[in-house]
Amino acid sequence: MNQMYKNLKAENNAIILDVREDYEYKEGHIKGCLHIPLHMLEDHACEALEDLHQPIYVYCRAGVRSKVGCHILESQGYDKVYNLGAISDWPEELEK
What's the burial of 17, exposed, middle or buried (CB within 10 Å: 0-12/13-18/19+)? Predict the structure, then answer.
């Protein structure tokens, strides 16, 4: 996560995407993130993520759903998608 975190912080217009369920998001999330649960991502990505070339960093609870989320976004034409993995690896305080 350290290098990914540095890359994310260096980006000016990156989106951090939380693909966890609503109850998980409410327990704590990365400040300023966009929340689209994984089961809704395929149908709702284009509404919230208009720029196919904008960097998108995806995370979840353990890293499995974020990997699937990255695959979904890439299959829809997004070309700068990165798997942040598990929220527990995030080095900053979470927002509730």
Answer: buried
